[in-house]
Amino acid sequence: MRQLLLLRHAKSSWDDPGLPDHDRPLDSRGRRDAAAMGEAMRRLGLSPDIVLVSSARRTLETLAAIEPLEGSPLVDEHAELYLAPAEKMLAMLHAVPETARSVLLIGHNPGLHDLALALIGPSGLASGGEDARRLGEKYPTGALAEFAIATPWWGVEEGGGRLVRFLCPKDLPAAHG
Question: What is 2-176's CATH superfamily?
């Protein structure tokens, strides 16, 4: 069984309206939320072998804030993940080496939310309980969805993921401390 972790970048700053979107940093809440999510990931034993991350500043700062990740994963930064649609993210997952047991993808909405909904599929969304209901409603900044994947990476398709958990920063006490 493979593990796929989908992490939306944490809350970004809009303080400088002249800054290009790609270059927006995290704001103070985003840094706090990402650090809390990193702590939760360590507590849950979520340790990816590979991290696929958008080249946007806010995704790279999210990655920095959740570190250290267990096991020193291979970090692969991709410009094409910036605001990528679900289909592009899925194509990138199809190219992951079969030796990877766990992948963390750090990206943006709406593509990340669309990918999560595609993986869970309509039947998983309907029967997946409270986490699936919350995931169906929205994918907030800093949120993490964990999926169990039964196929090789190249075979991941719609309905091919079982939602294990959906964590939002508001669920984590450390994000409010």
Answer: Phosphoglycerate mutase-like (3.40.50.1240)
